[in-house]
Amino acid sequence: MAAVTDENGSQVVGYSYDADGNLSERTVLRNNLTATYTYDYQNHLTAMKNQTSSEIVPMLADRGSYIASESTFYKVLKEAKQLTHRGREQRKHKRPISTHKATRANQVWMWDITYLNGPIKGMHYYLYMFSDLYSRKIVGWEVWESEDAKHASELVKRIYRDEKIYIRNMQKEPLVLHSDNGSPMKGTTMLETLYALGITPSKSRPRVSNDNPYAESLFKTLKYVPNFQPQGFATLTEERLWVKRFVEWYNNEHRHSGINYVTPSQRHMGMDQEVLRKRKEVYEKAKERHPERWAKGTRAWSFQKKNG
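The structure corresponding to this sequence follows.
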């Protein structure tokens, strides 16, 4: 059994989980919360069974609802023993330090390769992934059966077209592509492609093992989602379909902690400032309705002008 309490410790909602992890309809109303409001809360929490507490609150705010703080949600999930089922929740770690700064999308990209297990022991597929430093959006990816500079070259050409980087190059705003010092990253074919496209290559510093931290963090996120298959994928097609679904979720649904819990796509398209403005309005209205629950001011949800 678990209960949602407000900042003053008053019980707002009570509920329990059945054997399938679904919420019961037991409710305890306090502070004039309506039954409809409580019912909506339960539906949202069940629908967000794979989200962490820090993601649930901004997601609800973006839908026009404020229920409780992140810390309250965390306590509820902990009491209900639901934390381990939410994104295979990772331990908090220090935010990585980047060698680059970005103040807009398509200014700095990062890329790396990770291997994913195949159908038999010792067999791997290789995931190539490019992401944007400013927005954290995955701008391109592909899965192949080998590590090869030619594969990377083909992929960067495709992303270059999709993101219309040629327009930025015409404006004399060259794109930087950061990577580690792996063989595909230093391959002649890849370097020739970058120079032909007007992209400036950037490499990790010698003997610095974590000099591409955001790319590594992205792969860690990928391998911690609940439906990841650490035992391996049966076919290359199966793996590509899985990665496709992950990218769609990551770009369009995942509230990223490094960009104030907006989605990478929202930030990439310049929509994040408006999202944060509306989110703050939801908080202010919630405080007006129930000032007794707020010991301090509302969360700022301020716009981040740069990343890195």
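Residues 1-17, 23-39 have pLDDT under 50 and may be disordered.
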